[in-house]
Amino acid sequence: MVVKDGPLKYAIESEDSNIIKQELITYKIVDDRIVKETVDRRFLENGDYIDSTSQEPLTRKRYAT
To answer: Torsions phi, psi of 44, nearest 5?
Structure first.
């Protein structure tokens, strides 16, 4: 995915030293289930950071009948 100009791109590329954590939450369909995928970045005092990803199945996808 290429991030185009807009608020999301600005937030991702921001170099604000006051940021302690950023999250990107995506909802997608995987194997007929709705899954919440969270990617987060926790910033450390030394300027480094730790990235993590988690996935949470929410429910089965329902089809209109």
So the answer is: -100, 160
pLDDT of residue 3: 80
63, pLDDT greater than 80: no
User: Is the per-residue pLDDT at 37 higher than 60?
Assistant: yes
Q: Which of 25, 21, 24, 23 is nearest to 42 (CA)?
A: 21
Its pTM stands at 0.73
Task: Give the whole-angstrom CA distance, residue 7 versus residue 65.
Answer: 38
- One-letter amino acid of 39: V
Are the C-beta atoms of residues 38 and 21 closer than 8 Å to each other? no
